[in-house]
Amino acid sequence: MxxxxxxxxxxKAILMTALTLFVERGYHETKITDIAEAVPMSTxxxxxxxxxxxxxxxxxxxxxxxxxxxxxxxxxxxxxxxxTGFLGQLFSYAKEQPWVFYMFVLMGQVRRAGxxxxxxxxxxxxxxxxxxxxxxxxxQKKGIFHKGDVLLMSKCFWASVQGIMEEMAMDKDMKAPxxxxxxxxxx
Length: 187
Description:
This protein is mainly α. The chain has helices at residues 3-25, 32-38, 43-49, 53-67, 79-96, 99-110, 117-124, 128-141, 150-170, 179-183. The longest helix is centred in the N-terminal third of the chain and has 23 residues, at 3-25. The protein is elongated, with a radius of gyration of 18 Å.
């Protein structure tokens, strides 16, 4: 492994460790020394990779924001089929890569008041609710989804997914629910 590859591996280890600690302990309760100790490395060396805890959070939120692109509909797939497929992929991938659960939880936490503003703005720039509301609206026009306030329906849909991801992040033995069951809330 080259020196550059070693440095990138260490950077990933720092990010994944910070992600885990931010979700399990809370962002404000996690100190940079906690992250360095868990990696393990000296605090001084950690600062060669990231200048601050805020920079670490911002990098994680940027990663999470980039990952939301797969939720966008493609082609002429019916809205219920798209959402079911997306959730199936999300749950499957998260079981294979448990950090995905943590990322999902972190992205929800970062949108709350009291978090560093730059990270909050990145998280807020993702319009998952609006994107899903458009899918729901299209589904209503086709008679797939029941009538109602599409934005409210979208928020309730994602609140249930958020709760599931939080539970699965904390309970490694929990099985993912059927995506069809979750999408059926909209029908």
